[in-house]
Automatic annotation (TrEMBL):
Residues 3-33 form the Flagellar basal body rod protein N-terminal domain. It comes from Colwellia chukchiensis. Keywords: Bacterial flagellum, Cell projection, Cilium, Flagellum. This is Flagellar hook protein FlgE. It is found in: Bacterial flagellum basal body. One of its GO terms (cellular component) is bacterial-type flagellum hook. The lineage of its organism: Bacteria, Pseudomonadati, Pseudomonadota, Gammaproteobacteria, Alteromonadales.
């Protein structure tokens, strides 16, 4: 019997050595969780035996339990390196369409040849589908799909509105003959100009220039004429697309204003329809002609003769001056006794964009950014937790699978409920404490030596018995 007890002690000490050696070997393995050998004594007694004199039958390895304590975080320069702070696992599948889900804390991800996010073993990282505003469409693991980074460029968007704020100098001199002699090629025929880049439906850029001409103060005080050009070609400013009339007519017409001199606003040997900005004596913007219900001027469709690349020829651009008829507004133009100053000039068009980067938030939202300044939510990294982490089945490569004792996988978003947060450009290191493991190694070695000695003593006793004559 004593042989068996000593032998069980040797086996237990060997198991302890194996576990400790495995921990030490994986001290630099990303996402590795240390194990602990847990032992129980063996005690068996028959119904009629004396329990008071029963010694025991040795030791038995009850479990090699994983310890899921948090590992330290190491920061990197790769946005696809991911670390979980708190509870949870990443979910991966070995290939597209597979339902064989594995779970890991190792976040060393990269892109494969098809632009899917995968780990070193080729496992595809799963994510929840998201809405255009970035909210999750579903947080069920059954709807999670491998995350793919798009290879296409960001789509262009044609400009439909330009928001402009500026100050027109009240002390500017009137240019004799203005606005009838306006010519965009002659700086002596206008007071000021400014430009903004706008985009057509194909994402091609065009320069839109605005010209401001002070009206005759003797007849129209505190009034300025406005003209617009696209790539040097003048375009008409109208109240509604399709209207191509010079400013004139009766007060009830959509282009109501005073009659123009003859010839009308000359530019490139043709009449040009302009607009008018009116201010009161305190410099407040009070009216614009032609009037537009929601403020601003609209360029007549400028595609014909300007766009030659196949873009939408019916494109118009609204020039919004943010008219507020109730009171002065900081978003409106002003006419003060100071220099010409443009304080805001923004448009809503976009050029064609190329993928410039991937941003991953602490909640797992994966967002693609493009060179045209736009960003697009792609997916939300699926987080998974279990009622009993130590019940997970180890499958190698720092991965685990669901088992009966672990309970079912519970999916959710990073940072919600009991789920931890996700750190991009970071990796979770092994939670192995090397100093502790070396001490445990010495302890296991001593235990092995002690049990070897017990086995040796048992052998000597047997030899003595066998030599009795």
């Amino acid at each position: 019997m004593s042989f068996n007890i000593a032998l069980s002690g040797l086996n237990a000490a060997q198991k302890d050595l194996d576990v400790t050696s495995n921990n030490i070997a994986n001290v630099n393995t990303t996402g590795f969780k240390e194990s602990r050998a847990e032992f129980v004594d063996v005690y068996a007694a028959s119904l009629l035996s004396s329990g008071k004199t029963k010694v025991g039958d040795g030791v038995l390895t009850a479990d090699v339990a994983q310890q899921f304590s948090q590992g330290s975080i190491q920061f990197t320069n790769n946005a696809l390196d991911l670390a979980i702070t708190g509870n949870g696992f990443f979910a991966t599948v070995p290939e597209l369409g597979s339902l064989e889900t594995s779970y890991t804390r190792a976040g060393q991800f990269k892109l494969n040849q098809d632009n899917f996010i995968v780990n070193s073993q080729g496992g595809h990282l799963l994510g929840f589908p998201v809405n255009p505003d970035g909210t999750s469409a579903s947080v069920s693991l059954s709807t999670a799909e491998p995350i793919r980074i798009p290879t296409s460029s960001g789509a262009p968007q044609q400009s439909s509105e330009v928001d402009i704020r500026m100050n027109l100098p009240a002390g500017d001199a009137y240019i004799s003959g203005a606005p009838g002699n306006f010519d965009q090629t002659d700086p002596l025929t206008f007071n000021h100009s400014t430009s903004v880049t706008v985009f057509d439906s194909l994402g091609d850029s065009h320069i839109m220039t605005y010209y401001f001409v002070k009206d005759d103060p003797s007849t129209n005080p505190n009034e300025w004429n406005v003209f617009a050009a696209i790539d040097g070609t003048m375009v008409d400013l109208v109240a509604d697309p399709g209207l191509n009339n010079p400013i004139g007519g009766n007060a009830s017409g959509p282009l109501s204003a005073r009659p123009l001199p003859s010839p009308p606003y000359a530019a490139a040997d043709r009449g040009v329809v302009g607009g008018k900005l009116q201010f009161d004596s305190s410099g407040d913007f009070i009216n614009q002609i032609p009037s537009l219900a929601n403020g601003g001027f609209i360029t007549n469709p400028f595609g014909a003769g300007i766009l030659s690349n196949g873009a939408d020829p019916t494109q118009t651009v609204k020039i919004d001056f943010n008219l507020d008829v109730l009171a002065p507004n900081p978003n409106e133009p002003t006419q003060f006794a100071s220099n010409f100053e443009v304080t805001s000039l923004q448009q809503d068009g976009l050029a064609v964009g190329r993928l410039t980067g991937i941003d991953i938030g602490t909640d797992g939202l994966v967002r693609a950014t493009y060179s045209n300044g736009t960003s697009e939510p792609l997916s939300r990294i699926a987080m998974v937790n279990f009622a009993n982490e130590q019940g997970l089945t180890q499958v190698g490569n720092t991965g685990w699978k669901e088992s009966i004792t672990s309970g079912e996988a519970l999916a959710g978003e990073g940072g919600s409920g009991t789920f931890g947060t996700i750190n991009s450009s970071a990796l979770e290191q092994s939670n192995v404490n090397l100093t502790t493991e070396l001490i445990d190694l010495i302890s296991a070695q001593r235990n092995f030596q002690a049990n070897s000695r017990a086995l040796e003593v048992d052998n000597q006793l047997n030899q003595t018995i066998l030599q009795i004559r």
